C-alpha cells in the first residue's frame, strides 16, 4: 500500500482549486465563523472569491508557508489549513485551521492539524508548533487540549469583537510531546 503524508485517518490535504470558490464564498458569509477564525471583514463579491481561490491555486510551494484545502474521503471540500510564522532557524511555526460549519465536530480539524504537524516535525526538522486561540472560541480550545497542546499564556484584552474585549490564549506543542500523543493513538 502507498503511503501519502498528506492523508490522515479522515481527510486528505490538497491544493486549493479554482472550483472551490463557492464553498469558500458561502463560508465567508458566515459572520460567526469569521469571528472565530479572525475578524469580520466586509462582504466580498462572488468574483472576488473566484479571484482569491484562483490566486491561492496558483501560489507556488515553498514547503513552509502554505494554505491547503481539507477534503474528506467522500471528495468533499470541508475547510482549509494554513501555516505562518514559520521560523526554520528556531524550528517553530504556527497554523490556522477552519472547517465549514456543516462539517464541525466530525474530527476533520484535528486530523488536518495532525497531518501538518507531522509534516513539519518529521520532514522539516521543526521542534515546536504554536497556536493562538481567542478565549471565546471554546471549540478551538477543546481541539488544542485534545491534541495535547499546553496553554502557555494569556494575552489579556487582545481582541475586540461583538462589543467586548477578549483574551488571546497561546498554546504550544513540542515535537517530543507530539510523538508521545501519536504513540497513544496507535
UniProtKB/TrEMBL annotation:
It holds the Pfam family Acetyltransf_3. InterPro entries: Acyl_CoA_acyltransferase (IPR016181), GNAT_dom (IPR000182). SUPFAM superfamilies: Acyl-CoA N-acyltransferases (Nat). Residues 11-176 form the N-acetyltransferase domain. This is RimJ/RimL family protein N-acetyltransferase.
Amino acid at each position: 500500500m502507498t503511503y501519502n503524508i498528506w492523508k490522515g485517518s479522515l481527510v486528505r490535504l490538497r491544493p486549493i482549486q479554482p472550483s472551490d470558490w463557492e464553498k469558500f464564498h458561502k463560508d465567508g458569509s458566515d459572520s460567526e465563523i469569521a469571528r472565530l477564525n479572525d475578524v469580520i471583514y466586509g462582504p466580498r463579491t462572488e468574483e472576488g472569491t473566484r479571484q482569491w481561490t484562483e490566486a491561492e491555486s496558483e501560489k507556488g510551494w515553498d514547503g513552509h508557508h502554505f494554505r491547503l484545502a481539507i477534503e474528506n474521503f467522500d471528495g468533499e471540500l470541508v475547510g482549509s489549513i494554513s501555516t505562518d510564522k514559520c521560523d526554520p532557524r528556531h524550528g517553530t511555526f504556527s497554523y490556522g485551521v477552519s472547517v465549514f460549519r456543516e462539517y464541525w465536530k466530525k474530527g476533520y480539524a484535528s486530523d488536518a492539524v495532525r497531518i501538518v504537524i507531522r509534516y513539519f516535525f518529521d520532514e522539516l526538522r521543526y521542534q515546536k508548533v504554536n497556536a493562538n486561540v481567542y478565549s471565546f472560541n471554546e471549540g478551538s480550545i477543546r481541539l488544542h487540549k485534545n491534541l495535547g497542546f499546553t496553554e502557555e499564556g494569556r494575552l489579556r484584552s487582545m481582541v475586540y469583537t461583538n462589543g467586548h474585549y477578549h483574551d488571546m490564549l497561546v498554546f504550544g506543542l513540542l515535537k517530543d510531546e507530539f510523538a508521545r500523543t501519536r504513540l497513544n493513538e496507535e
